[in-house]
Prior knowledge:
The structure holds two protein chains of two kinds. Chain A is an alpha+beta fold. Chain A is 28% helix and 23% strand. Chain A contains ten helices and twelve strands. An eight-stranded mixed sheet of chain A has the order 3-2-6-7-8-9-1-10. In chain A, helix 5 (206-213) crosses helix 10. Chain A is globular, with a radius of gyration of 21 Å. The mean pLDDT of chain A is 96. Chain B folds into two domains: 3-117, no CATH class; 125-251, no CATH class. Chain B is of the alpha/beta class. Chain B is 38% helix and 10% strand. In chain B, strand 3, helix 3 and strand 4 (95-99) form a beta-alpha-beta unit. Chain B contains ten helices and five strands. Classes of the chains: A alpha+beta, B alpha/beta.
Amino acid sequence: MAETFFLPQASLDALFAALAKDGRRILAPTDRDGRTELNPVASFQEVAADYIQTILSAKEAAFPKVERLMTFTLGAKAVDLKDAEPHAEPTVLFGVRPCEASGFGALDAVFNWDTRDRFFNARMEALAIIGVGCTKKDDACFCTSVGGGPGSTRGSDILLTPVEGGFLAEVLTPKGRAMVALAPGAFQPDPGLEKKVVEVPVAFDQPGLTRRLKDRFEDGIWMEQSLRCVGCGACAYVCPTCVCFDIVEEADAKGGHRLRTWDSCGGPMFTLHASGHNPRETQAQRWRQRVYHKFSYYPERYDMLGCVGCGKCTRACPVDMNLQEHLAEAAQA
Amino acid sequence: MDLREKARQLLESGEVKAVIGYEKGTMGARRPVFVKKAERADRLVLDGDCAQNLATYLTRPEIRKLGRVAITAGPDALRAILQLMAERQIEEENLLALAGDGTVELASAQAIEEHLALAPKELPARDRELLERLGKMDRAERWAFWQKELSRCVKCYACRNSCPMCYCGHCTMDCNRPQWVPVASHALGNLEYHMVRAMHLAGRCVECGDCGRACPVGIPIHLLTFNCEESVHQQFGQRAGASSRLDYALSTFRPDDKESFIR
């Protein structure tokens, strides 16, 4: 059971200062050049005043767009391999939405599915999340269709919900309690505040969709839906749960580095075999893979969905591949 | 007659297999639609909000397979079509451009050239101002501007994939045996990618600005290709997309060139 407090607006600077004093970097949505993006902040004043979501997702805090896995140097007789150490700076994610906070669960499913990925885990251990519930939404949002909600506590260590004069603070985990302990004066007893968030109507029947996908693999719908897809990776790169990566080496004559970088199943190179064969040769097959991975393979393998309904993909898509709309269509007979 | 009526006629008569146009999308946006049946022609819209250059679809295998298509095309799309014809990527007989309000049929390269000659290319005021601002910066300032902007790049390639002139089946960016350009989205990788892209489009960019519109993180990436294109225009007096004949500055060579390095 979560402990609830009232966190006055005026106490946020004290909270930020206490977190900073504890050596933690605070990443929060900021308004830079008209774009809402996550940036390190020193005070609450720097946090964007009005935003639905950031453009990119918060996954970068645990799964950066480039991560060095190892370094190698070529000696006269042998190659010297050296493991890279995870760069896991103690970080507080402030102000991400509940959809994004829950997105880390989907990353965890993959990074700890078999081998425990030490880079991801080191960053997750160093990460604490103060989510903020939504009082606004737009037409791209569909969290309630995928088991989430604008007031969902899943994934947050503390969830704040805006109320008159500040926030209702639900402290949910030991990490959350540790943050409260750093700034005990900032949190006041809850006078019985009502948690009010925006309403997000359910757009489609998700369990029905997942069942329907079982016999829809060979269906003209994927070709029809994907005709306008230009096959870029914008949707995957802004997605809080997309976890595809590429491993590449950058080297010169003396040595180099092995890097892990973001990738997307939407690109033709992603499944290209060394033989030259490509099992997902057309954009229709790649679009289908994106839908199936999130709504069929994830539930099958991890008993969860690979989508949190944040709608970032829809907002980022240069040709308006509206995911929610396509899923609703695919759920129907 | 309006566009919907025109589309219906074209599809019913079998003159085209599909009409590539715009329909209403999320939050009032306009998005591409592929109308293959006459009864679906009602989805089509054509107004000032239709910004995307639909010519980018003409070189895609899925669209090629459809057969002859009609495409609603503003001046930028028409320029892209001519440039694609010049580069032997599309054939006149497979294409019907619907210009103006969507009812003006342009069935040949010559018709498109004549139609375009009426409206010479002019950059949008905002882009012109930005280019001028960049032009006035010294090298250090310009370097700082692009470093800051390119640091946002996540290498999603939305700019490349939206560009009507980026049609290569196998892009230099994707070459990994050997790897020419770093895959990773770090400072060097981002810079190299955008430099290579700009250079590949110099003399070929029709200045539609779709790369900049497509960028999910809002980098004004079109200014790089615009700048190269404007340089080519100033120095050689040529513009991409003016003609369907391959005669543009950076791909032709004459034995009597006054520069000695070329011999």
